[in-house]
Amino acid sequence: MNVERKQAHHQLDDASRQAAAQPWLDLEMHQLSPGHYQGACATLTLDGMHLVHEHQNQAVHKRGVTQGNLCALSIAKTVSPGMRFSQFLSPMDSWLYFLPKDAELDIRVMPASETFYLCLDQDSLLDGARILGQGNEVLRPEAPQAFNSKLTAGLMADFSALLHHRRPEGLLPLANCARLLRDSVVVALSQATAIDTGVCRSVRAGWRAQRLVSTARDYMDACLQVGQVPSITDMCATTGVSERTLQYAFRSTMQLTPVAYLRTLRLNRVRAELLIALPAHTTVTRVAMRWGFVHLGEFSQEYKHLFGQRPSETLAQRPD
């Protein structure tokens, strides 16, 4: 039996490049905390599944969706205060996170946090969970879920062994490695307890806050794509809430105000464009103004504070 296998280890100097190393996700990552970025991303594609171990030295916001019929199961190996998975504002080391296909991925990851995730066919996962659950429907593919499982540590050990062994087939034949991945996830979920979002007040509050922030973020994107920078008044009008409510939602999910988040988003968009631009064909001024920065001296200072280098240095990184 021929089993597809592709393995890679990336050392990355930018959040957008870390996102690009995971093409099975329609993913955007941007840096939230100031300083030079150092990230690492180990990936293993095996029989249509994608296994990933990643970490970085800066806080980042990850947002996107899976592609095709893929769902994702995530584990945070190390959880720091301020980390968030969707509506779960205070994740725990022992929790598993299920992201159904077509559901929005929305995660805030703190510096030095390590995460594993596996993307796999959702129908296959649901079928296995139903068989082991004997009619007890643990997974609900309508929205993200969190689970507490005593098998989390063992599942991470399986993930790590497959990702960081240069030739996983040296441990087991590739077909057996693929089966191990699927079976270990299904077994861990079959012995997991779902975190009840209807009972847990903090999760309900997190869900409302995350929905507000997501709506505001979609509006920010729409405005930026047509060259406009929305005001806080515009964002409140779009989300239908007061400034105080919107401020609370952003602070609880992003640890930033809406205005500070928008400015950070714009700076990341400038950086992503400068990293792929040809110096002979564009200028920092042109890119900065495209993302709404008019006061270029102030922009340059903020850019250097966030990324640890001047925008001209970023542009110069790519040769003509």
From TrEMBL:
The keyword Cell division is assigned to this record: no
Entry-linked SMART domains: HTH_ARAC (SM00342)
Organism: Marinobacterium marinum
MF terms in GO: DNA-binding transcription factor activity; sequence-specific DNA binding
Keywords: DNA-binding, Transcription, Transcription regulation
Domain HTH araC/xylS-type residues, every copy: 214-317
Pfam family, one: HTH_18
Record-given protein name: Helix-turn-helix domain-containing protein
